[in-house]
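Table S2 (text version). Query chain:
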Amino acid sequence: MKKYVTGILILLVAGACISHKKVIAKSKKVVILDTVTVSAKNNEYRAAAPHVWDILHTRAALSFNWNDKTADGEAWIDLHPYFYTTDTLVLDAKGMKIDTLLVTKGRDQQKINYIYYSDRGQLFVFIGTTHADDTLQLYIKYTAMPYAGKTGGSNAIVDDRGLYFINADNKIPGKPMQIWTQGETESNSHWLPTIDKPNERFTTRIELTVPDTMQTLSNGYWAASTKEEHHLRRDIWIMDKPIQAYAIMFAIGRFDITKEEWKGREVSYYTEPAYTKYAKSIFRYTPEMIDHFSNITGVNYPWNKYSQIIVRDYVSGAMENTSATLCGEFMNETSREIADKDFEDVVSHELFHQWFGDLVTAESWSNITLNESFANYGEQLWRKHKYGEAYADRLAYEDLQRYMLYVAQAPDSPLVRYYYNDREDVFDPISYEKGGAILRYLNGLMGDTAFYRAMKIYLTKNALQSGQVSEWREAVEEATGQDWNWFFDEWYYRGDHPLLFISYKYDDSAQKLTVKITQKDSSGFVYRLPIRSLLIYGDEKLTESWDIRNKTTIFTYPYWDGVKPIVVPDEKRYMPGGYIDDKTPAAYLSQFIHSNSFASRRIALSKVQNKFSDSSSTEMVRLALQDTMPGIKEFCLELIRWVKDDKLVKKWQPQVILLALTDNKNAVRADAYDVLGSWEVQGTTQQIKDAVYDSSYSVAGAALNAMYETDSEMAYKIANELLSTHPKGRLESTIWNTFGKYASEEDISLFEKASVLAYGTNKFTIAYSLYTYMQRVNSDPAFEKGAGIIANMAMSDGIRGYRIGLGEYLFSLRDFYTVSKKHSKEYVAKAVKRKAILQHYIDKVVAAETDEGNLKRYKEMDASYSYLDR
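Corresponding C-alpha cell output:
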C-alpha cells in the first residue's frame, strides 16, 4: 500500500491527523516527508491471529442502497475447524444488522443460535461440536451499514469504514457516483462477515447488483453478467486462488476500460471517461513491469489478470488488492501533468505487492516488512531496470533521508515489531523506507543473482500462504549457503541504526592517511558493517572493502607519489544509517567530480551551503548546474535559491537563465525560475512572462510565482486570466496562492465557488490559499465569509482525516490572531473581532464532528491555545 495525503496540510498542521507514506504537495506534486506521530511503546506481545477456523471459500452477493449508504448482503461461507474440535465460530462483522443465519452440515440446513456484539463488531455463532474434518457452510443474510457507526483510521489510512459511497445522492456537480472498498488493515468486515486477519486466505465469488450504466471490478476474472429488473445488472467475479481477507475488493462506477496484455493475460485500466485517452500514460509500462518483476523473482505474475482503477475520495494512496489495484484520484492526470510528474513509482510499488503481499502475505502486522519493505524496494528495482542505476540511487537516497528525518523525532523501532500500540502504527517510514534500505543493503552484499534467487525461493516455498521474516532469512541462506543470522539480528529484530564518525589524519612525513571510524549507537550496540568505500588519487580511483566489527576501526592508506588519497565511505550509501564525515571543500569537490554515485555526489554538493565563498564550492556549483545526473541540477538550484550575495548571483545568473529557458527537464526549468524569482533578477521580465504560458504546468507555476516577486499586479492579472483555462498541477496552486497573497476583497467569491467544486487533495490547495488570504485581507466581511467556507469544507467532508485537516486551518488562524502588548490598539481591535468570528465557526465544526479521534485532536489544540489577550 502506498500512502498519500496533501503536503499543504502537513506544512500547516504538523502532527495532526495524517501521515505516511509519501506526500503529494499539489503545488509541485513532489514527494515530501510526512508528519510524525509519536506514541508510547506498548508492552503487549502482538502474536499472529490463531487459526481456530479455516475459511475455504466465500460467496457474497450484494445490492446497494445509495440513498442511505447501506448494502444488502448474502454470504455463503464454506469452512471447517483448523485443527481442534470446537463448537463456536467467531466472525468479524462490523456495523451490520444480521437478519438470517443458517448452517449446512452435510445435507442438513438449520437455523443456528448466535449473538451479535455490535460494540465489538463480532458475530458469535454456536454451531455445536465440530471436528477438523467437518466442512460446513454458513449462510448469512445481513445489512452492511458502514456509515451508521463511528469510524476509525490512522496516520496511514485516514478512514476505516471499509465500504464507501461517493456522491451517493448525485448532488455534487461534476463528481461521479461510485462505490468502492478498502480492506487493509481489517476493514472488509464492514461489508463481509469473515475472519478479517492477514493470515486467513480463501477463494471468492463476488456478485454485485448495480445500475446497468455502471461498470464493476473485483478480484480474479469476470464470470458472467445477468440483467435484473429496474435497469439493474448482476456481475459475477471469481477469484479461484485463495487470497487474504483484506485484499478482497470491488469498485463500482462509470468507468472506461482501456486494455493491454501481458503474455495473453489482460492488463486493464479503469478511468473516468475524461481520462481515458491518458490511461496508458498514467499506468505506463505496466506490462513491461510485470515482465521485469516476473524475471527477477523467477516467478511469473501469479494472477489471471491485472487491473488498476482510479476512484474518488480514496482514503489512502493506492492499495494492492489481489489482481486489482485501487488508486486515489491524484493519479488522474493529463499529458501536461504527466510530463511534469508521473506516478510510476506508485504503479511499480503496488505491482510488486502482487508477489510480496498477495502471493505471499505477512502472517501478522508485526511482519508487515515482508509486504511494504519489498514494495518500497520494488520501486528502486524498476527504476534501475528502466532508467539506470543513478535514477534508482536517487530514490534510495531520498527514501533513506525520509527515514532518518522521521527517527530524529520518533522511536526507531525494530523492523519486525511484536510490540505496538495499534496495528496501523506499523505503516510508517520504518516499514517502508528503512525496510527498503535494508533490502537494498542486503542486495548489495549478496549480489543480484543471489538476491533474485532468494526471492524465488521465498515466493515459491510460501506461495498462497502467510510468511514470516524467519522464512525470508532461510531463503537468503539457502540461496547463498551462508549464515545470515547476524544481519537479520542487526537489521530486522533490533531498532535504531548505526552512526559512524569518520576522521582523517594526513601524515605528510610518513606519506600516509589514517582513517578512524567510530560507531555510535544510543544503546551502545556494535554493528557488523561490511561496506565498500571509494579511494581517489587524483584522477585515479579504486574501491576498498571495509568490514567494520568494532566500536573503533582504523584503516591506513599510503600516498601515491605524493598524491594524498581522498576517501568516500560507503560510496553508494548502502548502509541504512548515518555518517559524520567532514572533509575540506577541495576534497568534496574531488568526491563530486570522481564518484559515480548519486548519494556521494549529492552529499558533496550539500557541503557548499554556507561555504559559497570558497573557490572549490563555487566550482562545484558551476559543475552541478551543467550536470547530467538526475536530481543534481535540481538540488543545486535549491541550494543557491536563497543566496543574496550580489557577486555570486551575478556569477551564476547566466547559467540559471540558460537552464530556465533551455533545459530539457521541466523540473529543472521550474526550479530555475524559482531561483530567478527569489533573486528578483531584473531584465528577465519578458522571459518570465512567456514562461507563464509554458506547456509545463510546473514551469508556468514557477514563472508566475517569480513574476509575483517583482510585479505582483501583473502576476495577479495573469492569474485571473489563466484561471479560466482550468489549469492543473503547480500552475493551479500558484494561481490560488497568488489570490491568497494579493488578498483582494472581491476574490472571496472565487474561493467560495472553488470550495464547492474541489475534490480530493485539491481541497487543501484551496484551503491553504484561503488561509493565506485570511491573514492578509482587510475586509472583515470577506474574512468572515472565508471562515464560513473553511468551516463548511471541514464539516461536509466524508473522510475523517480530511475533516480534521481542514478544520485545523481555523484553529491555526485563531493562533495567528493572538495578540500581545507589542501590537497596536487598532490591530488588537481587529484581532479580537476576527478571533470571535473564528471561534464561532470553530464551535460549529467541533459540534458537527462525530469522530472521537478528531474531537480529541480539537481538544488538544484548544488546550495549547495561548490566550494572551484574555
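Notes on Table S2: The CA atoms of residues 473 and 485 lie 8 Å apart. DSSP finds 27 helices and 31 strands in the chain.
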